[in-house]
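Q: Hi! First time doing this. I have a protein sequence and I read that you can turn it into a structure. Is that right? Here it is:
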Amino acid sequence: MSLYKRLHEQQGNGSSGSSNGSAPGGGGGGSRRDPVLDDLRQKIHHHLIDELGPILYDKRLSEDDLRRRVQEQLQSALAQERSPLSAADKAQLIQDVSDDILGYGPIDRLLKDEDITEVMVNGPNSVYVERAGKVEKTQASFVDDTHLRRIIDKIVGQVGRRIDEAQPLCDARLPDGSRVNAVIHPLAIGGPFLTIRKFSKDPYQIDDLIRFGTLNAASARFLQAMVVGKLNILVSGGTGTGKTTTLNVLSSFIPADERIVTVEDAKELQLHQDHVLALEARPPNIEGKGQITIRDLVKNTLRMRPDRIVVGECRAGEALDMLQAMNTGHDGSITTIHANTPRDTLSRLETLVLMAGFDLPVRAIREQMASAIDCIVQLTRLRDGTRRITHITEIQGMEGDVITTQDIFLFDFGMGVDEHGRFRGHLKATGVRPKFAEKLADQGIRLGPEVFQPETFAKRAAGAW
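A: Yes, that's right. Below is the predicted 3D structure, encoded as structure tokens:
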């Protein structure tokens, strides 16, 4: 059902389509809503829907033309109102109704704020954001549950997903690729709940990660060599540690002449190569049928003649199919997994393989893992809110029933914190040269000894990227 139809249906039950008029970024004000202004917002909102109707969804209109028409109708509607409004109230009213119709209501300005990395709506009157790694409450709020629900329906409908009482959970995305999760009644007590993980419109490059302190020049050169040399990499970390961002950066190193197939739950990766095929999983329909899982898609990629397979995240039985692909000629594949340490990553991957439903011996699974995976890149969100690569770990092979690993780079926590509570440490080479360095050398990719010396390369090449 379109937003246009839903809005007409909701006119009868008193729903409102306005926001609270918080200051940009959610700060400022803090005052309670004026019920007179709320009524006026609702009235003008529905007047605009009646006047503009399907024009709001005319793909032939540019965004600027559509915004101009909405502004003109808003000015006309306000001119007919007898309610005494100050210039500030009138400007705020125009902004709020415009945000509701053209954007995402009270959170529209939060989503446009480049300093905010996550928007968390814990109900109509509780909106939090993450800024510089820290969570803070904003003054933004929705009129009521119906207002919030309408914004959720708008987001979900844009990507062909649905959310209702039969399926009250939904993963979706915004047009810019930002990840969206929504939970509604009856699961969300005090909700609905809406969580939006924002992604930069201009995807981060390796230079950005070095500038942020996520890694240094030596480890950046090492990661680039692994990707170009077609080693299989597992990016590991907890929630919100930057796995998808790192996966994007690693994928940027893939040569432009290779055929890349990406598999994701909701499309988030932003690859700039020309030869990229993006696959997205599909949830079941209203009858509970038609679901296409990540595992189905990973199996299908093998029939698409990929040079590289990039899986957004392994979280179930698709881990087995990913290992099989890595072991059957699809070198250079990359995926992410939720885990707190490299050793935990191997344990979790083993569990995910068992979720495929095959009664495989544990030793056979571990042999597959040791053979398929060359390296684990571990990310951690530190106490100061920064996201850092803390381990780059080589998978060396098997000793008995145990997979052996070797840390090539480690984060130095021993450097302590500064007066602002920010960690002084950075990623340092351990001095160990990985076994796969010979494999890279056979392909013409040579890493000199300076890459693996703890400090000299980092100091000398800090400006080389």
